[in-house]
């Protein structure tokens, strides 16, 4: 039995480019939810129950129903295109776990700073972290039920962001909404790293 020409042609295999994106923001803002909503693999989570010992340092005002907290990171993966895969690393929200941030930020293309308009001040530290390290980021306002909605420009002014920093509204529970946020991060990071001239 002979082989035809089509039998000798091997399918074109694309090696995807893999990019690392951080997901940061204050305590209880929805980072774990965001990673879980979009990850095509079962996300790795390092959540522990909130305890009485943490009560003096964990401000649960506005998120009283929260019972767990990320103590190391969340990890997920999403394939945006055949040739583009994003690895998502959700950072812990409390200050006492920030020693992990430098390790997680190594090699990151960009970041999402997830914000809650009821506690907007909680994302200042993450914004400052990425600005100081020159890591491109997008602010994603998680539109919680019952929270006031503000135009993107109002959020930009309240956070004193550079004019080029994207601000998008999202629902961290919705896959398509989160994909829109991640595309914004990648596009912004690519523009920020493109050669000028």
TrEMBL record:
It comes from Streptomyces violaceusniger. InterPro entries: Gliding_Motility_GTPase, Gpn, P-loop_NTPase. Keywords: ATP-binding, GTP-binding, Hydrolase, Nucleotide-binding. This is ATP-binding protein. One of its GO terms (molecular function) is GTP binding. The lineage of its organism: Bacteria, Bacillati, Actinomycetota, Actinomycetes, Kitasatosporales. Pfam families: ATP_bind_1 (PF03029). Belongs to the GPN-loop GTPase family. The keyword ATP-binding applies.
